[in-house]
Write a structure and sequence with these properties.
By secondary structure, the chain is of the alpha/beta class. The chain folds into 2 domains: about 170 residues, HAD superfamily/HAD-like (Rossmann fold), CATH 3.40.50.1000; about 180 residues, HAD superfamily/HAD-like (Rossmann fold, 3-Layer(aba) Sandwich), CATH 3.40.50.1000. It has 11 helices and 15 strands. Helix 3 links the parallel strand 4 and strand 5. The protein is elongated and about 70 Å long. It binds SN-glycerol-3-phosphate and magnesium ion. Magnesium ion binds next to loops. It comes from Clathrospora elynae. Keywords: Hydrolase. One of its GO terms (molecular function) is hydrolase activity.
């Protein structure tokens, strides 16, 4: 028994040394006394809180490096995406000048990486710059990834209005894994799932191709399901014929980019697509709903995913202090978007009974003096104000 305990202690110490010292060397300012284990932590939104497009916001570095010096755990929780987590944390680490690693980072499509049941299938990945999102999906383990651009280059007639973009698409698209040949459905290209990974760049092409897949027979492009419009069937026969599931990674209608006013996001594309779907199917007035799964903040699964990541990151960060680690009591969700960050923080039901307290900053989507659609626990100027207010709440300030 004693021998096994000592092995456990050795393993813990080894992991501790491997984990803490690099971090400590990176973060060391005024290290917190070992006795003070924070039972609170932070989840920071990115766009409108830490950065505006490519620029770090003024006090972002100060806020994050202060927390690291105090060994107060935090993660980044963004509805953004479009590149692999490892690439994004490298970019953010240099932009914010704080060490960040993927164990403390969740972006809109990160949960797609857990969808093992679809990794041997043919999936369509929509959105993002060029075919960066295909590379992310492949890095997650998806073996056959098709993009709307691949389909357009193989069959330009599928969308007549992006012909001028063909030279652009030809720089990164690939041949299709199977031909689109409705005359031979068994050998024709079949899509088994549609993932919108990031903000679409070509709303016209992407809407056309997604519509074609959802109206098809069993996801076989170029076919049309005979069940569409059959009032005797559920959902009036739409998406009742083995069509693929449709996933959106981010519901944001608006987000804070470089421009001084909020810009349309992936949610804008989805709303536009739902308008097309309603026009084609008759919509809810005729008993038809677009069957889809939308992830990202404010949705519960994304917060559960993030909380799990935060708890394990906290354990790694604080295990060095030895003894039993007190449970995490509170997470401060710092965001600029009432509809995603604040609604998500307010409505999240933690399976661990952790209290999520939302803090709204005025450096992004939310405009000072207006009434937010979702009331935060507090509204402050920027991320540093959020950190100091929360630390004061926790009586942590040294
Ligand atoms: O596309 C990104 C945008 O929707 C918002 O990102 O970091 O504010 O959640 P973030
Ligand atoms: Mg934001």
């Amino acid at each position: 028994m004693a021998a096994r305990a000592s092995i456990r202690q050795i393993v813990r110490q080894a992991r501790c040394n491997s984990y803490c010292i690099p971090l400590r060397r990176g973060l060391q300012t005024a290290a917190a006394p070992a006795s003070r284990i924070p039972t609170f932590a932070f989840a920071f939104d990115i766009d409108g809180v830490l950065v505006r497009s490519s620029d770090a916001l003024p006090r972002a570095h100060k806020a994050l490096s202060y927390l690291q010096s105090q060994h107060i755990p935090w993660i980044l929780l963004t509805n953004g995406g479009g590149s692999h987590e490892s690439a994004r944390v490298a970019e953010l680490s240099s932009k914010l000048n704080v060490p960040i690693d993927t164990s403390m980072f969740v972006q809109s499509h990160t949960p797609f990486a857990d969808m093992d049941h679809l990794k041997d299938k043919t999936v369509m990945v929509v959105g993002g710059e060029a075919d960066k999102c295909r590379a992310v999906a492949e890095a997650y383990g998806f073996k056959t990834v098709v993009t709307p651009g691949d389909i357009l280059v193989a069959h330009p007639d599928i969308w007549p209005f992006s012909q001028q973009l063909l030279p652009y698409y030809k720089t990164f698209t690939r041949p299709l894994p199977a031909p689109i040949d409705p005359a031979s459905p068994s050998t024709s290209l079949r899509i088994d799932a549609v993932f919108v990974y990031n903000d679409p760049r070509d709303w016209g092409l992407d809407s056309q191709v997604i519509k074609d897949v959802l109206l098809s027979h069993r996801g076989i492009l170029g076919t049309l399901s005979r069940k569409n419009g059959n009032a005797a069937l559920d959902n009036r026969g739409y998406q009742q014929d083995g069509q693929p599931p449709l996933y959106f990674s981010n519901p944001d209608l608006l987000w804070a980019a470089k421009y001084h006013l909020p810009r349309l996001g992936q949610g804008g594309f989805r709303e536009a697509f739902e308008g097309i779907w309603t026009a084609i199917t008759g919509g809810e007035a005729h008993g038809v709903k677009l069957q889809k799964t939308v992830l990202g903040k404010p949705h519960q699964p994304t917060y559960e995913f993030a909380e799990k990541r935060l708890i394990s990151h906290r354990r790694n960060l604080l295990q060095c202090h030895g003894g039993t680690l007190a449970n995490l009591q509170r997470v401060y969700m710092v965001g600029d978007n009432p509809a995603s960050d604040i609604a998500g923080g307010n409505n999240y039901k933690s399976p661990h009974g952790i209290d999520w307290a939302s803090i709204l900053v005025q450096t992004g989507v939310y405009v000072e003096g207006t009434v937010p659609a979702h009331q935060p626990r507090n509204t402050v100027g920027d991320v540093w104000d959020a950190v100091t207010w929360a630390a004061a709440q926790e009586k942590w300030l040294t």
